[in-house]
Amino acid sequence: MPQFSFIHFSLTPLTRILRATALGVGLGLACGSTAVAQVSPSEPTSVQKSYHIPAGTLSQSLNHFASEAGITLSFTPELVEGKQAQELNGSFAPYSGLQKLLQGSGLETVIKSDGSFSLKLAVPVAQLKTVKVTAAAESDTSYSYATKTASIVRGAESLKEIPQSVTVVTRKLIEDQNLTMMSDALAKAPGIVATTDGMGNPEFRSRGFVIDNYQVDSLGTSYTSTYRPDFDLAIYDRVEILRGADGLFSAAGEPGGTINLARKRPTDYLSSSVSLAYGSWDNARIEGDIGGAIAFDGKLRGRVVGVWQDREFFYRPADEQKQVIYGILEFDLTDSTTISGGASDQKVEGVTWMKGLPTFDDSSQLGLPRKVALNLDWATRDTTVKETFLTIDHEFNDNWSAKLSGMKQRYDFDYIQLSLQGPVDKATGLFGELGAFSEDDGNHSEGVDLSITGRFQAWGYLHKLVAGIDSRSSHGKEMRNNFEVDFPNGEVGIDDFPGLELPAPTVGGYNHGWPAWGAEQKGGYARLNLQVSDSAHVILGGRYANYRDYSSYELFDGAGNLIASEKNGWREDGIFTPYAAFTYDLTPAWTTYVSFTEVYKPQNSFAGPAEDPTKLDPITGRNYELGAKGSVLDGALNLSVALYSIERDGEAIQDMRYGEGSNFWLPLGEIVSEGVDLEVSGELAPGWEIFAGYTYNRNENEQSDVVYSELTPKHIFKLWSDYTLPGDLSQWTFGGGVTAKSEHANSGTYWVMTDAGWTQPPFEIKQGGYAVWDARVNYQMSDSWNLSLNLNNIFDENYYATLGRPSDGNWYGTPRNATITLRGQF
């Protein structure tokens, strides 16, 4: 495969630079400053909310309203030129609010098929060139590549005012690139490394660390079991990713980042869509989506989304059948209080290959055709994800609001799998270990959050506050069944695939497993944004939390009788993680920032040295970031750059005084991750949109002078761009993009059975740099219907998307494929 070389540069001094910057900011603040505050828009929503917009030009009032309502509004400058709008006071839905502003102007509101709004004269006139006014909201208004806000930090917040790197994969990006799963969206997001773990589940890394903090509508959830679901994107408006440690709302865990899935919400007008898609390997998919006002003059709104999918994979045998249903209701109890709730159910079943490929005993890849799976047609997996949620929003006045959110998730996971593990003997082609396993697993999580958001004036300035309390818990199980497979010849080799046939296994009672394990986190948080000058803000905050986890293990004999059990538990209270940042507005469109937060991660699953085998202390550390965010082309194009440094102390490393495979550990690891993030999103010119990012990362364990996360390439570049032809050809849109990564590897030790018993030899598996190109063409058949063709990996690049171990976990990237989609919006 072709090798891609990248410029190499070192960021070793970055930590010192960021520390010095933070110190300089602190000294500057100590000297004091004077300020006059600027009012930021209130939190936007798609439902009724209160507005206070003073009388002024119609253009200014419409811009103000669109920003606060979080809608996409298009109009011609000529339409509003010289017109005035009266003062707008009261509670309005987007459509009724626009109509109120337009009274006496001779204009009227038009609801477009994609859910956006436009204006027109009451008497038709020739169509003129349009100007877009876009403001992202908490509903599906993200129908562009650029968005101005994100809700990952509790409520909609301007991206420019969040002093950390945040990426939003909008609904338009999801549809244009034909992204159907959360893992698809993360694979296209700047700076994210999307892989498959050793059990066939999606895994994501950012800045060298695994992302293990998840949110749904800003409410934290977690997965303590081995298995993490991959969510279907049909029920979500957008995917938000915060890169780096989140010391306020997630706190404990890896500092790689946080993923927030923003659900689709009801609109206040009738809107529906349907899509029918068919792609390579018999991938058939149907989506339906309908929502709008139901009763009580639009105070009761609802939305329902459904998915049916039946597909095979590029490797065989493997197939999947999926059904998804999602429903949500919103009701305005009063002009200031809205309650919303709903449920979703995602069921996936089929013949599933979970383990991936092994390597030869010299760590070289097997070189099997990509269509070959080390699998049999009785190896099945059934997964179900059920979710219920409830939210109450209340606005006390124009400045203060409160929100109570609750969610329950239930993830059940049962499977039967063939296990042919490596390494494969290079001389004979035989697998190192033959077996199979069956498990009954699951993960149940609950979360509750109560927060208050507001702004207040003090000392002549306007300030903002977010504070709240939350509780989240996650409980899992992993029970392995007795299992027998008849291997007639007592050996299996790679030459037996494809075509290997084995009788279906007999599954008995439990063999061993963890009937209960989990974690709980309860805490409070606060963030105060103080405006200290015309251009400067100081942000101070922190999280105070208590942590608990537990596990139980059981061992059964061949008859299914319990013969041994063990229970473990751990807790730590009063953990405080501080957060601080400073932002400075260079211009109304550009802001610079520096931020700091601490890192905390329990590692009680590791025993200390033999002379003191207590649980290891938690990992602690620091996250520094220095950056700039802004927009050009009248706000149509967003740009951002960030330098970061993450330090972690006390990482568990194996106590080699007791040899390889020791179960004793020392808290001596010192992990440093440094790098650069660059991102651009939005409209380069009318009809030409772009979403791109470049990241550089250097990470290592300074105690051992080895790379900490070799799976993270030093260089990653991702690009997607779409262009709609002008004039009479405007029904045609062409798009394309690339994902390019520099060389990377995976190394370490792994367990293998030899004639001398269990040993733990070293390994190193490498992947050279590569680039995968995609393309798209779309034809707008009418105002409601469009037909698109997506081509992925158009040059059929042969590469490994995931590097595992010699035993298993190596996965090919998807070969060239195509999908044609017919989509209607009404």
From TrEMBL:
Give the main localization category: membrane
Q: Does the keyword Transferase apply?
A: no
The superkingdom listed in its UniProt entry is: Bacteria
The UniProt record lists the keyword Membrane: yes
Alphabetically, the GO molecular function entries are: siderophore uptake transmembrane transporter activity; signaling receptor activity
Q: What transmembrane ranges does the database entry give?
A: none
**Domain Secretin/TonB short N-terminal, chain residue ranges per copy:** 71-122
Coiled-coil intervals in this record?
none
Source organism = Cellvibrio mixtus
Protein name as it appears in the record: TonB-dependent siderophore receptor
Q: Name one GO cellular component term.
A: cell outer membrane
Keyword vocabulary terms for this entry: Cell outer membrane, Ion transport, Iron, Iron transport, Membrane, Receptor, Signal, TonB box, Transmembrane, Transmembrane beta strand, Transport
